[in-house]
Design brief:
Layout (H helix, E strand, L loop, with lengths): L4 E2 L9 E2 L3 H14 L12 E3 L14 E5 L5 E2 L1 E2 L9 E7 L1 H18 L3 H13 L5 E8 L12 E5 L12 H11 L1 E2 L4 E4 L5 E2 L3 E6 L6 E9 L4 E17 L5 E2 L2 E5 L1 E3 L2 E3 L9 E3 L8 E14 L16 E9 L1 E2 L7
Parallel strand pairs: 1-2, 12-23
Antiparallel strand pairs: 1-9, 3-4, 4-14, 5-10, 6-22, 7-8, 8-9, 11-13, 13-20, 14-15, 15-17, 15-21, 16-20, 18-19, 21-22
Length: 337
Amino acid sequence: MSRRSLTPHGTRGGSRARTTATVAALACGLLLASAGGAAADRGTGTTDTGGSGSSGGDGISAVVYAYHSPEGGQPMTSSTGNWSPPVCWFEPRYTNDALAKHNEEMEDKGPLEGIDHDTAENRKEETDAHKDKDGMWWERTPVMSPRSCEIGELWIWVDRGDPDPPADAVDPEILAGLAYDRTKLPAPPVDLKPNEDRNVVNLPTKIEFSQPLDRVWTTASLANEQAGINIAATTVAEPVSLRIDAGTEYAEPSSCTYDLVKADGGYQVNSDGSGCNITYRKSSGEGAYSMEAQIVWDVTWNPTASPDGAPRNGDLPDGLSVSEQEVTVKEIQTVVR
């Protein structure tokens, strides 16, 4: 196993190569500038390349996303407040020749926009030491986030087929977290009976979907032939329940929760005969009550590019999608003659 690293520190120890803190800052700036990629439409079957950028050199890889979700969806919200997507990881980026060329280009730009001569010479020592070797330089890849990568190696040399990849190397579990963060969910397609503008006091409000919901999935993949890596993960969100909140204390009950059932090629709800239907006990007057609908989505992932792979729950929390609608509630007017 051959493993050499370029670090942001100005010391060399063992297999570590010398680089300056200034260079690390410039490199991290370049990485952050390239993060994000081009945002693609998230309709069914769309794809999007790059959460980490893909510019420069041969053999460069970047995560590719494929979506199966409705147009105009909302970002999936975690049901817990302590989950966050992966922030930093290593992925194969440069062949040795490509990194050497990149370093030359950075030196040509000078220390203000690129790197200084001493840093370029230090990097050249490393690339010269890896001529004719079969492998790649793996790069620490941050995403656009208020958090930043810890100071450490920027590039690590990894032999092709090395069974011991660098710590924090991209793997299916990291891809699953990235896919979760990219998933968009449809808003709850709730219809009310009576309609939201025709509700009356003491009349139960029944709930159904205007159309069935389907499961949603996002696939994140990374393939790099030069590095001998071809991995993927698919995160699948399946709707399981609907919660309705009346938006006022003047309702009995103030909320109802319904399990979704498979019907009409998807997942449906119909509260008729369910034993729980919100009944407003007071008029909304000149205004309206804000009724909230929230769907809970059971989220699993699998280490393939298919939503039908054997699921692994892992640490991915349930997802949520939410919608609100204004409900006007009127008194029934009785005329006495």
